[in-house]
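Justification of resources, computational component.

The compute hours requested in this renewal are based largely on the per-chain cost of generating structure records like the one below. Each record pairs the submitted sequence with a full structure-token output. That output is archived, and it is also reused by downstream analysis tasks.
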Amino acid sequence: MTTTHHSTAELAKLARVLDRRDPADLDFLADLPPAALRQFRDQITGTIADRESHRMHRIGAAAKLIPAPIAAKITEAAFGPVLAAAIAGSVDPSRAVAIATALSPTFLADATVTLDPRRATALIAEVPDRMAAATARELIARGDYLTMGRLAGAVPDQVLRAALPHAADIDLLHVGYYLEDTDAADRLLTIVTDRVPGMIRATAAENQWPEAIALLDLLGPTERSHLGNVVADQDPEILDALLTAVTELDAWDTLLPVAAGMEPAALQRLAERPIMQDPAVLTGIADLALTQNLWLDLLPLAEHLTPTQLHTVAARISAEPDDALTALIEQAHTGNHWDTLIPVALALDEPARRRFAALPVMHRPDTLSAAITTAAAHNLWPAALPLVDVLPPHTHDLLATTITTLSTPDFHAALTAAPAAGSTTTLIRIVLRQDPTARAHSLTLLADSDDLESLVTSFTTTDPEIWKSVAAINSDLPPRLRTLLAPQAARCGHSDIAEVLST
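The structure output for this chain reads:
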């Protein structure tokens, strides 16, 4: 969607250069990328300027011989605004400003329509604030946002500060739509940052979301995220209107990168809106993220989704083949996004979760270590432990080494989470695989845990091999732990083990 709107803006600029009153005359070029249209426009502008450069320099040299007020009269009466704009870059900047001071705002506005900012940089830098403001006021009164957008990226900040107070909030949006590049868009938003809420309200009031979304796409990451935070802070009706427009215009490819940099509170408000509860919308967002390389932009938003919402997203992810899932995990691992990936993985259904855990990438030491470290750092044990449950047994030695590095508080947090997560058996199986020194430390922490009774009660496995492993380290078990494990073994149908643990 945003590419279409950028192309529309570029066609309007090209029509101006070609002196076509109706941009629709150029619709046959609409399928071309915006960058290609802009390059074509620059080539045409350059060709025209180069062809006339010698004549313009001769006229510019002659202007030095005539007093400025008389030169201004000649400019208005004989040259006209188009020729005046062409000559502007060939006249000494101070001299050009002196002549322009005697020209009317109407004439100056007419001249800026065809002025090439790239060839008049020195002149633009010397334009007095008052003259810039008067010219801008005239252009805005005409609704000539295209010219304003072209000039806004070329004029100094102080000129913009002088000119923009004369623009209404909605005018600022229209000017932004025709900006040339990201630097210009970022600069404009920085200068009018106090007016951004008003721009958003005006956008909603006049239903100009397509232009606003196109401007979002033009901004750099910092200003884009700032604008996203401000939008999320508006009345719910405005946020709902934006999300509806994004969905209808198929513009989530623009909004997802915005969301990736938004503050957590703003993302939470975004995730709570009614349209975000629609499975079709969530599936579409997930599909876009997976097919348009926006996976890492989706994860920050996914962190704020409810289990029901996450299940919808996970269902779409589970449709990906193993190589695609591997690539997603690799991206999340490289970007250190385990804190958002773990809840998404847990939302997969049981077969998909097992397929996820069976991927070779999940068995690498660096991957498992990063996942466990992230679970500890963000206290994600309730989400992480069920995933550990479905890891194949050959990873348990590696996990046993990894949990040795956990701090005492982090290990206790895992112990506390295990019963509710149904992961006690897996956790004990991993502890049993530790080397004797590390295992003794873990068993001591187990015995000292305030949740020891609930932990042992949730150790309900009937697997004889696990119970035999417990009995094999009977002499290493702390007394409190051994006392509780003996009757639990009996309850699980292993009276022989219970007897060993009781001696």
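Confidence is low (pLDDT under 50) at residues 52-56. The radius of gyration is 33 Å.
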